[in-house]
């Protein structure tokens, strides 16, 4: 009985492997790095808890709760505090709460009367019928007007993709927005009618889903799944080659300087696109992973700064703030981490997690740490009325943080579909296939586990 190879131990690879193991399918996980979790990394230092990568997960499905129970982590979940329901946007150098009700929107100083009128007209605007692929910017301008794009969506896109709405594709980057327009004719109408459909499917929209993490950060989840898979995990073993054999697949990986090989029934490739491009695919079907190397990634540095609470003038009663590009600041946005979750900073202190760089100012992300601290502190001091230097600093640079679902992304999706179709038993996943959100990547683990189990059973490769 041969096992299933999972390549990459980010959230996608780990959740898939964990769920395959629950189905009694033997797995082997190959990880190039010396640790599991991919971009998820939580660091507890000097009483502060900083996240280098993602900070929050969304509970968009009962399946996520089920996985957490299976991993025995229910007692470690920390839901965001109620203050997290308020989110801020920066406009004109001021930190302004985003309205969450129709009345709040009408009275909000965030948008002009013209922008408000434009938003209320949205249900009366026609569907997109043209054939060419739209950018997010074009879509938003067409449905809501330019001001909403400049002050709200530009900042939101920076918060999710660290991306540029003038380049991101609406159909690939925000497929639910696109399909909402196509199905309901209006995004505002879809808010009401879509809720009914989601209820039927047992899903919760990202806007309504509860935000959560774990007592010691998101790494608790990946560490816990890895502990469950302990003897199946091969760290520091980058995969270099995947070869089709008469009975399945052979994985070639480096162990030190030595090339090793192992036979498997099926392979699930969850390495990031920028590294998967270098894996040789040795099959008679003449397909290659090299084109994945053309997917562009936004560089991002995450910078967590701790302050004495008394030095911060702003009440920090919220999730955090997003910054539109038009404000010309250094940061893309900041999470008020210690307001959102308990036990993130020592008594009398706060921790603020900011992101810098992205497609907006890619040159900033790779700056030396001292410069990053200076730039981020400069913005925070002005916006949040901070009167002292930080008491704690930590930063992490991701040269390729988040894949950009730019216009034309369909080429990569088709290419991935073509490889999987021509190579039965080879599955490809990760944040460049189903969107960057952790919840989507986690849920893809359920899908892969089901599809792989079905494949090995039908191919008579395994007696599961
Ligand atoms: C700074 C930042 C902030 C974010 N914030 C949020 C957030 O708050 N909420 C949210 O939902 N999402 C957020 N995201 C997005 C989300 O974290 C990612 O999309 C998701 O974690 C990606 O998981 P993955 O498994 O697809 O890939 P990765 O985490 O990139 O894992 C891929 C793994 O494959 C390994 N690998 C690569 N090549 C090979 C090889 N040849 N052989 C073996 N192993 C290999 C890598 O070492 C890595 O461990 C954020 C991302 C970043 C970078």
Hetero ligands:
flavin-adenine dinucleotide
Please, how many domains?
A: 3
CATH architecture name of the largest domain: 3-Layer(bba) Sandwich
- Within the CATH hierarchy, at the fold level, what is the topology of the largest domain? FAD/NAD(P)-binding domain
Task: Compute the number of strand runs.
Answer: 21
User: What is Rg?
Assistant: 23 Å
Strands of the largest sheet, in order across it?
Answer: 8-7-17-18-19-16-20
Q: Name the CATH homologous superfamily of the largest domain.
A: FAD/NAD(P)-binding domain
Q: What overall geometry do the principal axes of the alpha carbons give?
A: globular
Overall residue-averaged pLDDT value:
95
- End-to-end Cα distance, whole Å, is 10 Å
Describe the fold and architecture.
- The chain has 464 residues and is of the alpha/beta class.
- The protein folds into 3 domains: 4-34 and 235-295 and 405-458, 3-Layer(bba) Sandwich (FAD/NAD(P)-binding domain); 45-52 and 57-83 and 297-403, Polyamine Oxidase, Chain A, domain 2 (Alpha-Beta Complex), CATH 3.90.660; 112-207, protoporphyrinogen ix oxidase, domain 3 (Orthogonal Bundle).
- The chain has helices at residues 11-22, 62-70, 102-107, 113-120, 136-144, 146-161, 170-173, 175-184, 187-201, 219-228, 273-276, 337-340, 362-365, 369-384, 410-422, 438-458, and strands at residues 4-7, 27-30, 42-45, 48-51, 57-59, 77-79, 87-91, 94-97, 210-214, 233-234, 239-245, 248-255, 258-264, 266-269, 280-282, 297-308, 320-322, 331-335, 349-357, 392-403, 426-428.
- A 7-stranded mixed beta sheet has the order 8-7-17-18-19-16-20.
- Strand 17 (320-322) and strand 18 (331-335) form a beta hairpin.
- Helix 1 runs parallel beside helix 10 and helix 1 packs across helix 16.
- 47% of the residues are buried.
- Bound molecules: flavin-adenine dinucleotide (FAD).
- Residues 7-13, 30-33, 38-40, 53-56, 238-239, 270-272, 275, 279, 300, 302, 398, 401-402, 430-431, 436-439, 441 line the site of flavin-adenine dinucleotide.
- Flavin-adenine dinucleotide binds next to helix 1, strand 16, strand 20 and helix 16.
């Amino acid at each position: 009985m041969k096992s299933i190879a999972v390549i990459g131990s980010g959230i996608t690879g780990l959740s898939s492997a964990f769920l395959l193991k629950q189905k009694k399918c033997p797995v082997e996980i190959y990880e190039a790095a010396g640790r599991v979790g991919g971009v998820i990394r939580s660091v507890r230092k000097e009483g502060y808890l900083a996240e280098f990568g993602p900070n929050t997960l969304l509970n968009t499905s009962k399946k996520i709760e089920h996985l957490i129970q299976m991993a025995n982590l229910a007692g470690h979940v920390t839901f965001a505090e109620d203050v997290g329901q308020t989110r801020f946007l920066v406009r004109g150098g001021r930190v302004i709460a985003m309205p969450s009700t129709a009345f709040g929107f009408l009275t909000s100083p965030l948008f002009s009367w013209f922008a408000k009128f434009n938003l209320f007209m949205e249900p009366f605007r026609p569907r997109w019928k043209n054939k060419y692929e739209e950018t997010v910017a074009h879509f938003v301008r067409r449905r809501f007007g330019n001001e909403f794009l400049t002050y709200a969506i530009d900042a939101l896109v920076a918060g999710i993709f660290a991306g540029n709405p003038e380049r991101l594709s609406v159909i690939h980057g925000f497929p639910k927005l696109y399909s909402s327009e196509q199905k309901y004719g209006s995004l505002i109408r879809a808010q009401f009618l879509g809720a009914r459909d989601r209820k039927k499917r047992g899903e919760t929209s990202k806007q309504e889903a509860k935000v959560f993490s774990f007592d010691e950060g998101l790494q608790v989840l990946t560490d816990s799944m890895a502990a469950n898979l302990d003897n199946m995990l091969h760290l520091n073993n980058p995969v270099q080659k995947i070869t089709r054999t008469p009975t399945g697949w052979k994985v070639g990986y480096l162990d030190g300087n030595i090339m090793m090989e192992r036979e498997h029934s099926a392979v699930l490739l969850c390495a990031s696109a920028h590294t998967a491009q270098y894996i040789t695919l040795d099959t008679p079907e003449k397909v290659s992973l090299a084109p994945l190397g053309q997917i562009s990634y936004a560089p991002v540095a995450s910078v967590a700064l701790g302050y004495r609470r008394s030095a911060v003038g702003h009440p920090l009663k919220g999730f955090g703030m997003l910054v539109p590009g038009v404000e010309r600041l250094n940061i893309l946005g900041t999470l008020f981490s210690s307001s959102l979750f308990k036990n993130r900073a020592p008594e009398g202190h706060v921790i603020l997690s900011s992101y810098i760089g992205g497609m907006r100012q890619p040159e900033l992300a790779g700056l030396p740490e001292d410069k990053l601290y200076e730039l981020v502190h400069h913005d925070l001091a002005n916006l949040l009325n901070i009167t002292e230097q930080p008491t704690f600093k930590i930063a992490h640079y991701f040269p390729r943080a988040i894949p950009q679902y730019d216009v034309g992304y369909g080429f990569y999706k088709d290419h991935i579909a073509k490889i999987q179709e021509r190579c039965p038993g080879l599955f490809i996943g990760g944040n460049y296939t189903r969107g960057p959100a952790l919840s989507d990547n986690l849920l893809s683990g359920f899908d892969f586990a089901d599809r792989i189990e079905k494949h090995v059973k039908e191919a008579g490769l395994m007696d599961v």
